[in-house]
Amino acid sequence: MLENFVLGLIQGIAEWLPVSSEGMMILVKTKFFGGAEMDILIRQALFLHLGTFFAALVYFRKDVKNLLKFRSFNDSTKNLFSFLVIATLISGALGYALLQTIEALEDFVTIDARGLMLVIGGLLLITAYLQFKSKKQLKGEKGIQKKDGILLGVVQGFAALPGLSRSGTTVATLLMRGYDDSLALKMSFLMSLPIVLAGNILLNFRDFTFRPELLVGLVTAFIFGLLTINVLIRLAKRINFGYFVLIFALLSFIAAFV
Predict the structure, then answer these.
(1) How many Å separate Cα 27 from the centre of its chain?
(2) pTM of this structure
């Protein structure tokens, strides 16, 4: 019960930061609650993402409602809708292929806790680099291009790797592509909705076994995700979170040898 509460708390807060919530959950679970096979860890982290899925759905409910009104699309909404469809299809296919590869490699390669933490630290360094490289620009919804949907689909697909922040890499990429800060954040979080839902349907629900402790983690992730999303989005506009990601990367390397 405590494990699921702690992991749900991490997911609820870290999802909105350019720090991998999945990587941090795996790090905490491996270090404090005992390790498990990589595919099991990833499936558990993916399930807890449903908590922040519902938090984002509530927070962006007006945007989601507009995206579902197909007949009343204006040019801006049409561009955003096309972007999300393209990004979701590409990231879904790529992410699924990566997860299948990780699962297959477990039969041939054994990754211990230390190796896992070193990998996570290295991937967090990539996220930090992307954050430092991001630049503030002013491109609105009318400037959304389909090629950006392709690019962000690839970026989000690679975020299936534990330790590589989905929000961090997608937001940083959107900023480097010239999008306004607030629009980049909104696009990133809207991108997460279909991919999290589809990922759970394809990877988790077919073998889903309900346990009360899972509900604890899910509800915790939802509550803390909803409470912190507004505050953290405001902070993300004012502070370069690359420094925070760099600190987490260094902590991962230290933890590998503690």
Answers:
(1) 15
(2) 0.79
Q: How far apart are the first and last CA of the chain?
A: 26
- Measured distance CA(161)–CA(223) in Å, rounded: 26
pLDDT at 133: 76
Burial track 154-191 (b if 16+ CB lie within 10 A, e otherwise) = ebbbbbbbbbbbbbbbbbbbbbebebbbebbbbbbbbb
CA–CA distance from 117 to each of 25, 30, 157 (Å)?
11, 9, 21
| Helix residue ranges, H only, 15-106 | 21-32, 38-59, 61-67, 75-105
The residue behind tokens 């404090």 is 32
Cβ atoms of 183 and 141 within 8 Å: the answer is: yes
Place of tokens 């962000």: 152
Residue 112 has pLDDT above 70, yes or no: no
Which is more confident, 83 or 245? 83
User: Under a CB-based contact definition with an 8 Å cutoff, are residues 32 and 10 in contact?
Assistant: no
CA-CA distances (angstroms) from residue 250 to 60, 61, 110, 223?
Answer: 34, 37, 23, 29
State the SS3 of 121-137: HHHHHHHHHHHHHCCCC
pLDDT of the residue at 182 = 77
Dmax (CA) of the chain? 58
Task: Report in angstroms the alpha-carbon separations of 3 from 9, 28, 68, 241.
Answer: 10, 9, 37, 27
87 or 132: which leads in pLDDT:
87
